[in-house]
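Thread: quick sanity check before group meeting

JM: Hey all, I'm pulling together slides for Thursday and realized we never actually wrote out the predicted structure for the chain we discussed last week. Dropping the sequence here so it's in one place. If anyone has concerns about the input, flag it before I start.
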Amino acid sequence: MTRTILSLEVKELLRGKYSHQPWGGAGRAYPDPEALIFAIVDPVHKLAARVMLESGTRGEGVGFARSQLSKMRLRKDNLKGIVEDPYFSDGRLVGVISTTEKGGYTCPHYLSVTTYLHLEEFLNQYGQLGGHYDDFRQSVEQAAKSTGQFVKGRALHGLKHNFAQSFYVEAVCAGKSPESAQIETSRRCSHRRGDVYRTYYSGRRR
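JM (edit): ok, ran it. Output follows.
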């Protein structure tokens, strides 16, 4: 498999091209997700939001399911270790978690090593990550209001859109084709179909 090496100048042009698209159709991505997470007061909710932002999982994937039928919680057996990211060929290390989400779909997600170790420490101490969906949503919405980023309907799913935007640009800048980047973005967002990216994350409404 041939990997395309892009110059710094080309990478900046790509970032500029893709970063100004209205991601998520209705603009559901947060303008400043780092400020949002910093403003979340509850430390459990702050960690859950961080995992969502870095991994692309739903709220259900971090133990905060909207449906009361879901029993998903992040526990120590969901931690799968630190490995080289299987999609990239530059040897970058990531922490792997496995989640079961909408429709019973089980999927690996990848975190920075720092966040993975923080999550591991949390699970070793408390046993699981999870709780009531509405409490988590309200924490995130309060942080959004305090940072001037509140839009009705953005809530938790906005973090998923942030992940999709960031990961797609990162993949293209690493030399992946747009088609490959779209498929992998969809997969990392726990969708079985690769073309879901175009519907939910490209942001172009025609």
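AS: nice. The longest strand covers residues 93-101. The helical segments are 8-19, 33-39, 43-55, 113-126, 133-146, 157-173, 178-188, 196-200.
JM: adding both to the slides.
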